Amino acid sequence: MKTLIVGSGGREHALAWKLAQESEVFCAPGNPGTAEIGQNFAVPVSDHAAISELCRQIEPDLVVVGPEDPLIDGLADRLRAEGFVVFGPGAACAQLEGSKAFAKDQMLLAGVPNSRSGTFTDPGDAIKFARKLYAEGRQAVVKASGPALGKGVIVCSLLEEAEEAINSMMVERDFGDSGRTVVVEERVFGREFSLLTVCSGASRISLPVSQDHKRALDGDRGPNTGGMGTFSPVPWIHADLIAKTEQEVVDPMLRSLQAQGMDYRGMLFSGLMVEDRIPYCLEFNVRFGDPETQSVLRRIGTGFWELLRAAASGEPLVAPEWLNHAAMTVVVASGGYPGSYRKGVEIELPTQIPAGVEVFHAGTKRESGTLVTNGGRVFGVSAVGESLAEARKIAYEVANLIEFEGKFFRKDIGTA
Ligand SMILES: Nc1ncnc2c1ncn2[C@@H]1O[C@H](COP(=O)(O)OP(=O)(O)O)[C@@H](O)[C@H]1O
Ligand SMILES: [Mg+2]
Prior knowledge:
Blueprint: E1 2-7, H1 10-19, E2 24-29, E3 39-40, H2 48-58, E4 62-65, H3 68-72, H4 75-81, E5 86-87, H5 91-98, H6 100-110, E6 117-120, H7 123-135, E7 140-144, E8 153-156, H8 159-171, E9 182-186, E10 191-200, E11 203-206, E12 211-212, E13 215-217, E14 221-224, E15 229-232, H9 239-259, E16 265-275, E17 278-285, H10 292-296, H11 304-313, E18 326-333, E19 357-361, E20 364-367, E21 370-373, E22 377-385, H12 388-401
Parallel strand pairs: 1-2, 1-4, 2-3, 4-5
Antiparallel strand pairs: 6-9, 7-8, 7-9, 10-11, 10-16, 12-15, 13-14, 15-18, 16-17, 18-22, 19-22, 20-21
Helix pairs in contact: 5-6, 6-9, 7-8
């Protein structure tokens, strides 16, 4: 069996590592980590014609699209039309991530628990709605509808902050066209988690739950990042909360999409906040999370390739083998991230990696043979152990041994 993985980050390295256990792996474009597992092809994810040409050359049994941009831009539709088996939703379903206004409409249509909101193209109307929320003693979250690299959401304690956020998005256009339409929604107070569900029409299987740490610094201080680490399992997320989320969020959404002629074939990532035991849906993503995937895949045994293939083909799903151990991933980042940071810094990796550890490359490249940094998040060091404490100990041992100038990582992953 042959698998083509589209993308180049830590998520794609983890997918390549996992899928290489059950197939021959090819990556477009991949990274120095995936190059050690399979064959990389220097094709950018935005060049759909080149990816389609690569598919004709490789003839993969399965294509897995990692990032959201090519999905939103219709790569899955194109490859499916050409006869390939693709894990990842088509452009219509991918609007769940591409447009927060569309996602809100779909949540309302499906009856998924979500917080009260309004969608606006006029800043005056948006401000009027925000004022109403604060007058009722509520707070607002202001969201640029279009893609904004995880920076387009502003949680506002005060009305002034909400007005400033609306102004920055809709008048100043600080997020470009992504802020042309804005969703203003009521702030939910509760604990946050995400559920990754493999979907095939109305058939679905959720993967083991992980928790991420979004802030740059220990103790959840510092600016928001793409994610500084993850762990799985998560003690407070019980099986009944997962079942409730599947029944109240995932299933109604899949059925509603189907009723509109949209067959979801890929990963549905539900972003949730639990208040009064209700899992409010904050957002949907249409792909694997990064760095959630790096921990989650460590908890899956055999049958993962077949799960993705069946979903890609629209067939009923069979659960893979679940592994009972704990997994933890610590992100090793470049000094300055998520602000500005240097690239091209020489890296020295430990020669001996203990059993149970995978060092997933996220932002690296080779420059005349030398491994150098090429991004803010450079590696995800992923370890498994009998307990979370054991996984944490080994992950940090290895994170400490990775050398490059300016390296930093959070010391409290899996404890917060
Ligand atoms: N209604 C809400 N109430 C409270 N916090 C929210 C709400 N919506 C979003 N957030 C917070 O903002 C973060 C980012 O929002 P999200 O909708 O996930 O957009 P994105 O991931 O595209 O930035 C969430 O992870 C959550 O912490
Ligand atoms: Mg989010």
